[in-house]
Amino acid sequence: MQTTAVTPDLAAHLLPSPNPVQLLDPTGTEVPQEGTRRPYLMPPPERLREVWRAMVIGRRFDIQATALTKQGRLAVYPSSRGQEACQVGATLSVTGNDWVFPTYRESMALVTRGIDPVEVLSLLRGDQHCGYDPKAHKTAPQCTPLSTQLIHAAGAAYGEKRRGTDNVALAFIGDGATSEGDFHEALNFAAVFEAPAIFFVQNNKYAISVPLSKQTKAPALAYKGIGYGVASEQVDGNDPAAVLAVMDVALEHCRAGHGPFLIEAHTYRLDAHTNADDASRYRSSDEVTAWLERDPIARVETWLKAHGALNDDLVSATHAEAETLASDLRDRMNVDPQADPMSLFDNVFEQRTPQLEDARRMVAAELAADAEMEDQS
Predict the structure, then answer these.
(1) Annotation says 206 is catalytic
(2) Which of 37, 223, 282, 330 is the catalytic position?
(3) 152 in active site
(4) Which of 72, 117, 216, 240 is the most exposed, fewest CB within 10 Å of its CB?
(5) Per-residue three-class SS string for 115-145
(6) H or E element: which one contains 160?
(7) Which long-range contacts (CB under 8 A, 24 or more apart) does 133-138 make?
(8) Which of 73, 253, 273, 294 is catalytic?
């Protein structure tokens, strides 16, 4: 039986850096690049300012969505406050031709992608399974089951490769979901067929209440890539500049036909898992306070001001813009949705099956009978 040996050089190419890539420390100061396995470039000020603006707007959206949950306008909301650099940086790195596969926590990423916030929150309000057109936005519906969207992302990426495009599929995932079988199946499929997929793991330290130490003994989740032949990297997920730089390398890798790329972003969710979770039962307030000092928005804002790319007037104007958008969202979410019962039969199959047509005719007949009764009363 003939076997193929893996050379040390190839293995080294797949390995992540021993420490998370960081370009800006929590104070907003540039740090030297030491010990990284790949070269990473500081993004230009204009690009960092774009990310800063989107993070400010994204955080205000997130806070407003949390408030809507408390007001009974949403059934549930998984906040991503504190994870803005991951949500915004990764999303702004891809183009409109690339696919995005979100989890239930990526509402901020979807708003950053330009999807109507009300359509984004349609799932969490309970109106429908997906409030936006996935094909039009090249964005899959938000996925509640853990990791199942990763197999879809690998397939979509492989489809783009078969079509001869250089489009990629960006798939978000949480640290807890890396324990699911679908995560490993997706990585293996993407590697074998060299599918241009980026698996972006937001390691926010907890799978609901389960800490990372009880999920894996790997030195970092990024090391899980080498077992499947997937190039990997780990990054400070609260450093917007580093997130952009690592995403650029991953995108170049995928578009050049070198297969998938795994990114582990070390970050932290400042709020509870959802509004139904009591995070104080499994983490201390001191831990949360320590992560507040690593705020991604403040970090890049400090750097931009120091380099003359941002001033107080622009900061005030951006926060005012964010307030206006939040107010508009609040007003539109306070209008009760008008649900059409017949929409139950839309978007189930591309062509409705005979059984679905029978069910549709039955519901239509019941609605007609109800309307006739109301007319007679």
Answers:
(1) no
(2) 282
(3) no
(4) 72
(5) CCHHHHCHHHHCCCCCCCCHHHHCECCCECC
(6) helix 148-163
(7) 137/113, 138/96, 138/97, 138/98, 138/99, 138/100
(8) 273
